[in-house]
Amino acid sequence: MMMLKKILYLLENQVKALQNLIYHRIYLNPKSEKDIANRFHKLYYDSNVWNNTFWLGIPALKCPLDLWIYQEIIFEITPDIIIECGLPMEEVLYFWLLFVI
């Protein structure tokens, strides 16, 4: 009986260690997540790809990830009106027009 308890204790510790390892490999702490997000934004901006983003052949000057999120929000909420502030150029309006047509 004592041997069985030792084996169960060792197995529990091994399972906890494995769970801990998996958790830390899958999930990052908030500081790491913030660092990754900051690096992504810097890399994206410095790459100048935002200056080479097109929607149906028309320059969009937006991050494609933002455009993707916009369409998800619009589809889910179906707002009556959309106000875009700070447009550098009117080309992004073509993106928005697809949702009102």
What is the makeup of the main sheet? 2 strands, antiparallel
The end-to-end distance, rounded to whole angstroms, is 74 Å
Described by its quaternary structure, the protein is single chain
Count of strand segments = 2
Q: Which range best describes the helical content: under 10%, 10-25%, 25-40%, 40-55%, 55-70% or over 70%?
A: 55-70%
Outline: elongated
What count of helical segments does DSSP give? 4
Query: Strand-and-helix sequence, N→C?
Result: HHEEHH
Radius of gyration: 24 Å
In what order do the strands lie side by side in the largest sheet?
Answer: 1-2
Strand content: under 5%
User: pLDDT under 50 segments (min length 5)?
Assistant: none
Task: Summarize model confidence as the mean pLDDT.
Answer: 78
Q: Output the structural class.
A: mainly alpha
Topology:
Blueprint: H1 2-26, H2 30-47, E1 54-55, E2 58-59, H3 64-77, H4 93-100
Antiparallel strand pairs: 1-2
If you had to describe this structure to a student in words, what would you say it looks like?
The structure is a single chain. The chain is mainly alpha-helical and 101 residues long. Helix content is 64%, strand content 4%. It has four helices and two strands. A two-stranded antiparallel ribbon has the order 1-2. The protein starts with a helix and ends with a helix. The model has no long low-confidence stretch (mean pLDDT 78).
What would the keywords be for this entry?
101 residues, mainly alpha, two-stranded antiparallel sheet, 4 helices, 2 strands, elongated
